[in-house]
Amino acid sequence: MLTLFWGRFFCGWVCPLGTLQQAFSYFFKKIFFKKRKELYHPYQKIKYLFLIFLLILAIFKINLLGLISPLTIFSRGIISFRNIIAGKILALFLLLNKYTDLFAFDRLFYWFQENIEYFSFKSTRLTYVLGWWLVIILGLNLFTTRFWCRYLCPLGGFLGFVSWKSILRIVHTDNCQNCLRCVEHCQGACNPHLKNKWIKQECIFCLNCLNCPEGNLKLISQISNYRPERLNYQKIDLTRREILYTLGGILLLYPLFKLNLKRSLYSLPLLRPPGALREDDFLNQCIRCHNCIKICPTKFLQPTLIEAGISGLFTPYGNGRVGYCKYDCNLCGLVCPSGAIRNLNLFEKQKVKIGTAFIEKEKCLVYAQRTGCLKCFLNCPLRKKAIISVEAEEGLYGPEIISEHCIGCALCEYVCPTKAIVTKGVSQKNT
Predict the structure, then answer these.
(1) Residue 302 CB neighbour total at 10 angstroms
(2) Judgement on whether residues 223 and 266 belong to the same structural domain of the protein
(3) By mean pLDDT, which of 22-36, 172-186, 253-267, 326-340 is the weakest?
(4) CA angle 100, 101, 104 (to 5 degrees)
(5) Within the chain, what is the greatest distance between any pair of CA atoms?
(6) How far is Cα 192 from Cα 169, in angstroms, rounded to an integer?
(7) Averaging pLDDT over each range in 98-112, 160-174, 222-236, 394-408, which range is the top one?
(8) What's 307's DSSP letter?
(9) CB-based contacts of 219: which residues, under 8 Å, 6+ apart?
């Protein structure tokens, strides 16, 4: 609503990613491009076409809007850097404690572990992906001020459409000589120097142009009595050809979004959180907020990369190598804001089957090396029901999984010393 009155003020005054880009743009311009003029480029229309592209994909149940929101990119990028730095500090504490054997380092390590959220000795692959994504966006400001904001940001494109009828305007006095001083520090590249051709939809109201040494630019409202000249301005004009190209791109890329490269290679269905909707509905409903991943106490839930295809990018899945689904925990359903994970009570959650474990006997200590080991059997919450102990040979007992009773919590996979157990996901019944 405020955009209808004040235009794209959010981009210029509120957006944290925009602020961070502005800082990097100022730094790069100060060092490398001191005389660069901030003029409008026709490629700035890409963000409007990109927005149309994403909205049409959303209609066809491919939800990517949550991945490229500037707020999402900023928060996840900063958290990723924090996790990387936290892991390095923890590793340093361990190294110092190993060689100095000082109690102080030991206490620092445990304080850090208890008070820094989501700490990890090994940064996950997603941590580096999100971190580098933010680095790339910031690095692009070397070429153009606020590169993401001008050319790619779909939120900026949406606010640009909305701001078309906003009441604030920039106008010139009759004394303006078109000296181009105003475009030296324009953050939106909206051509404030051109009379009647100022591009309102690109203006983020940084107000730098109002620092005109001659005072020839003014900010007025549409209802103001100040009328030095007609209040005309240039609008973003999306041509029919550009829109057709966008629709053609959707037709070409839609099969790619539905393609699952990793699953086609390994044929391992994903473990989804207990209470998750059926796969297509889950991908459509999930907004990639990662609340379930953050709250998972065992780090069982992890974000996907290519495991669920492009349409399933960053959605939560269970990784039995990293953690396991606690039998007495239903937190993921409680924190899901979109309904992609149903809010089940503990009794209902314990009845949900998210997968089935399988033993690869050629890796199992009992069957392959004739060595006693029943860690999977002893740790299973459904011991003697989902997994039983059978005599492999005289005096040697090994595990056997009863598929119809296994719920796929992956605890057996997590504790297996030789990684001889693999847990495959199943489609959950949405009752």
Answers:
(1) 21
(2) no
(3) 253-267
(4) 100
(5) 102
(6) 10
(7) 394-408
(8) T
(9) 168, 169, 170, 207, 210
Listing DSSP states for 133-182 in one string gives HHHHHHHGGGTSTTHIIIII-HHHHHHHHHGGG-SEEEEE-TT----SGG
Out of 258, 291, 323, a domain closes at 258
Distance of alpha carbon 303 from alpha carbon 68, whole angstroms? 15
With contact defined as beta carbons under 8 Å apart, do 61 and 98 qualify?
A: no
How far is the C-alpha of 39 from the C-alpha of 19, rounded, in Å? 20
Residue 168, phi then psi, degrees to nearest 5: -80, 140
Q: How many domains does the chain have?
A: 2
Return the residue matching tokens 């235009």: 7
326-350 burial code (b ≥16 CB/10 A, e <16): beebbbbbebbebebbbebeeeebb
Going by C-beta distance under 8 Å and a sequence separation of 6 or more, which residues neighbour residue 110? Answer: none
Of 351, 334, 360, the residue nearest 424 (C-alpha): 360
Q: Kindly provide the b/e burial profile for residues 124-156, where b requires at least 16 CB atoms within 10 angstroms of the residue's own CB.
A: bebbeebbebbeebbebbbebbbbbbbbbbbbb
For residue 408, give its domain range.
261-425
HEC profile of 195-233: CCCCEHHHCCCCCHHHHCCCCCEEEEECCCCCCCCCCCC
Q: Which residue has the tokens 């100095």?
A: 100
Where among 226, 258, 290 does a domain terminate? 258
Assign 79 a pLDDT band (cuts: 50, 70, 90): confident
Token pair of 225 as six digits: 């009595």
Tell me how far apart the alpha carbons of residues 56 and 50 are, in angstroms, rounded to a whole number.
10
Are 179 and 293 in the same domain? no
- Rounded CA-CA distance 268/276 in Å is 17
Please give the structure tokens belonging to residue 331: 């937190």
Same domain, 164 and 278: no
8 A C-beta contact, residue 428 and residue 275: yes
Residue 424, φ and ψ in degrees, nearest 5: -105, 140
pLDDT at 107: 65
